[in-house]
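One such given next:

>
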Amino acid sequence: MSTLFPTQGVLRDVFSAQTPLSMSIAKRSKAQQRQARSSLHDPFSVWSAVDDAKTKAGALSEEAQKEIAKASAAARAKTGDIELYSLKYYSACTFGGLIACGLTHTAVTPLDLVKCRRQVDSKMYKGNFEAWGKIGRAEGIRGVFTGWSPTFFGYSAQGAFKYGGYEVFKKFYSDLAGEEAAYRYKTWLYLAASASAEFIADVALCPFEAVKVRMQTTIPPFARGTFNGISIITGKEGTAGLYKGLYPLWGRQIPYTMMKFASFETIVEAIYGYMPKKKSEYGKGVQTGVSFAGGYLAGILCAIVSHPADVMVSKLNANRQPGEAFGSAMGRIYKDIGFVGLWNGLVIRIFMIGTLTSLQWGIYDSFKVFMGLPTTGGPAPPPKQTS
């Protein structure tokens, strides 16, 4: 006969410690239990895992460095020893400038897009994230990178002439001035060499810059791509339409580049002056790190010096009427925006140019190291004393 009350066996099964959790623990092997107890009493086990991760990351980094060293050795075996100031040297510097400027400017296209649109219409967006959100919702990720194609072509060409030309003109003006004068007036030499190089580089950049700015400041973009844009502009305005922003481009880029190169050389020299050892005694990683730091500080100065002209370039490419004289267009635009309007978008441009300049110098000097060449900048050797 069944009873209404539970038996002792049932009560023991229900209220004993043999819960599902305890039963699963009991089923663990003795080794697992010892490991669990040791982990509870060893609060530094997590640190050990972090150290293991660091060790593995270090091993991967060493492997990557070995592969880079192999690639560098293979490249140098094909090109042979590159003598300073030889044709091979200038060719290497030209290619280094091409990849340094082309890749970095293309990478920050979303920043440049918002900057240009806010320069043309400061009320269009309240901030960068709002701008990217609106553009992304309306046009997708492709819209956020509007203008990347002319940016890549234009700044690759500009970088090649800028960096390669700088090395050429720096050597030319040094030889022209003589060793003692070149050392004494080295800052003026940096300024002259960079200005000369940028003057030529902007002629190569200007057609692509005209297409880029129009693509970024017209909604929807007036052209499907770089060469379609060039065709549309030349069809309506002739070749002159591609160069109507050349004068303000010179006004923006030449001071920018003079500041970029002269301040970089001076800052890098100062950094090595504060460091305990000579530049030649530091490894490649330290030298490229100095280039990166010097480039960022130089980029901040560049952005401030060239920003008013940058705003004017955007306005002229977007709003200059066919046949309108350059001076008249500038006067009309300045009357509309005033002095304060020349500084629209400065904060984002400081961030963009600082990042760009540091990356460019880092990439450029890394490529020079890759090809077995010394990095740019550092204490200049004193002139030889003549008896």
Summary: The first helix runs from residue 8 to 15. The radius of gyration is 31 Å. The mean pLDDT is 82.
